[in-house]
Design brief:
Strand order of the largest sheet: 1-2-3
Radius of gyration: 12 Å
CATH topology: Rossmann fold
CATH superfamily: Response regulator
CATH architecture: 3-Layer(aba) Sandwich
Number of domains: 1
Structural class: alpha/beta
Number of helices: 4
CATH class: Alpha Beta
Largest sheet: 3 strands, parallel
Strand content: 5-15%
Number of strands: 3
Order of helices and strands: HEHEHEH
Shape: globular
């Protein structure tokens, strides 16, 4: 996708297993994953793989979300409607 080698999984535990296997350069997680939220998955990934940037994507970013994203260790938080554009822009820096 857009020049990146990507993998897709459907759950937080599957994302953590994949990151352990592939040593990802960047992890993009939806906050509304089934079974284990993206928020919790992010916190677990940061603990398991310090230094791996995790970006969260949610349907709508509300007022408290950016602070909570920092709390769980996310490198960024984007609304779904602008996430791809924002990631493309940040990768060109």
């Amino acid at each position: 996708m857009m020049g990146w080698d990507t993998r897709q999984v459907l759950t937080g535990p599957a994302a953590r297993r994949l990151v352990r296997t592939l040593r990802a350069d960047l992890v993009v997680l939806a906050t509304n994953l089934p079974g284990e939220s993206g928020w919790l998955t992010c916190a677990k990934l940061i603990k398991e793989r310090p230094g791996t940037p995790v970006v969260l994507v949610c349907d709508d970013v509300d007022e408290a979300d950016p602070e909570f994203a920092r709390f769980v260790g996310a490198a960024g938080l984007y609304p779904l409607s602008t996430a791809v554009t924002a990631l493309l822009h940040s990768s060109k820096r």
